Amino acid sequence: MAASAVIAMASAKIAAYFGIHLRAERRETRAEAEHPPEGEMIEADGVRLHMKVEGSGPPLVLLHGAGGNMRDFEPLLPQLAAQYTVIRFDRPGLGHSALPARYRSPWRNAAPTPAEQARLMAGAAGRLGLGPALVLGQSYGGAVALAWALEHPGKTAGLVLVSAASQPWPGGRLGPLYPIASHPLGAVTLVPLISAFTPRKVVDRALAAIFAPQEPPAGYAAMIGARLSLRRGAFRANARQVNALWSALAAMAPCYGSLALPVEMVHGTADRVVPLDIHSAATVRAIPGAALAELPGIGHMPHHAAPDAVLGAVERAAARAGWHPRPGSGNVAP
């Protein structure tokens, strides 16, 4: 009798486990159908990356933040594509880009560093034959942009860092979600539950916290495809990348003084996700000739809350890189 009870309980737990994964898979399939790839799928060192190229002019690479995808820059595209060849990526493991094979297992708590991510995307962008690019990175994407310049100075015309994570923060701690979701046990238990059952109101609260003290733009969750970030693989990849970021920045920050290129930084004074005083205020002092525009009262998403400030930073970086407007076209040229 006892054995039967144990078997019944085990069977119920197994059924529940696979039921959770089935529900998560259905939600993932729906999210991908509603937000399919918009660009082209290319291969770099055996890794499939989602890249989209728009506009004309010298190259400008856009790198999104943690948990996001290339759609986050949509509001800036009309202005940027009129002046530049804009190259957008889904960073490895996010959006529709894959991870290198060694990072795909839920049982291996490891993630590609900003330098590894930069290496993959710089290789893909280099195939376009457009020469050194301006690289704009927002939040975690700022760390990848800095790694891009450190690893590939000859392929980098300048940097635009927007609310960039650039320094190891005091204590190196994050909230509990990232380390738990990164751990192999959390990756196969907590992450499927999040993927299967997270309601819309939780997503909305998370977005509100990212944009605070501003409000997310109307329709932002639908525009970016927020549920793409809740897929099991993407959620796990993002958690592991963020969880490993402190160590990566601790290794990168001492090298910033070697950067000899235009660097324009934009950061809101009300940013509580990546605080200005910890990150950009220190980084602007570390990089020779770097410039920092502080945005009073603006939070973590200036490319939405203060787009003109970000566009202005791109223009200044382009001018410092020696790119000048084409006569009568409004475009810039090397």
Instruction: Report on the biggest sheet.
Output: 8 strands, mixed
Count of helix runs: 14
Query: What's the CATH class label?
Result: Alpha Beta
| Overall tally of structural domains | 1
Identify the strand order in the major beta sheet.
Answer: 1-2-4-3-5-6-7-8
Stretches where pLDDT is under 50 for at least 5 consecutive residues are 3-15
Distance between the termini: 81 Å
Helix fraction?
40-55%
CATH architectural type: 3-Layer(aba) Sandwich
Q: What structural class results from the helix and strand content?
A: alpha/beta
Rg, rounded, reads: 21 Å
CATH topology call: Rossmann fold
Helix and strand pattern: HEEEHEHEHEHHHHHHHEHEHHEE
Shape: globular
In total, how many beta strands? 10
The CATH superfamily appears as Alpha/Beta hydrolase fold, catalytic domain
